[in-house]
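hi! just following up on the protien thing from before. the input was this:
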Amino acid sequence: MSYSREEPDPHQARARRLVGSRAARELVPTVPGTSARWHTHDYPGIYCRWHHHPEHEIHLIQHGTGHTIVGDHIGRFQAGSLFLVGSGLPHHWISDLPIGGHVVDRDVVFQFHPQWLRDCGSLLPELVTLDALMERSARGIEFSGSTAVDAATELVAIGTSAGITRLQHIWNLLAVLNAAPTHEAHLLASPWTPSREGAGAADLVDQTLAYIFDHVSDHVRLAEAADLAGMSESGFSRYFQRASGQSFTDTVRKLRLTHAGHLLEQTDLPVSVVSRRVGYLGEWPLLSSAAKAG
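and the predicted 3d structure came back as:
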């Protein structure tokens, strides 16, 4: 999707509508007669929020584009993007949609508990080869190239099969991800320590992300974010970093850079205009921020 010079990018309104939903620990239900949970869901929906759970998650985006937030990583996704998110790692995918927009079956999700894999490994010692992959998943992994294509085929097949055939697709899926070459398996987040601040911390992260998205094209101020949270600047800064795994300043910079990259890729706007659209006063601050990120 592209936008003309005159047409404003609607991403801020899209994100503002979705990021504000309550984020918390997701309860992943067990499904009788299956080893792990497979499902699809629309966007927006009850699963579309900043959340975490003890299960590992393999996640395929089937349709559209948008922002990926995994731990302290903020990036872009497109149709065919495939992720492995480790146990306890917060995540969220925010689609580029107009207000009121809806995507049917945007997501295909497979969730399995680490203990299930350990139990399988106690009987099937060959599964020890997956240990390194599961360790890396603690930072989130995005797969690309033929790995993402082959893994997506196996992931979708899990949902249309049963019995031994279903197990075969599960092991095939894990084998494809485990065999991914380095250039097709990209670590996303910094080493992650789960927040111990409770549900209120997730609410604060959501509220702060909504505030940043609201003001990404003008002035984002720590003082205003702290005031919204009813906290002092220093107290808010410490609390936000503990809850989100990154500083307020880094969060603002990453959101601005990903928004700038999207505008440069999807429109013909010059760098000077893009800089202003994402809250910088000119080209140099944007280029300098991008250089530091690189």
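The chain has a mean pLDDT of 82.
The first strand starts at residue 37 and ends at 43.
cheers
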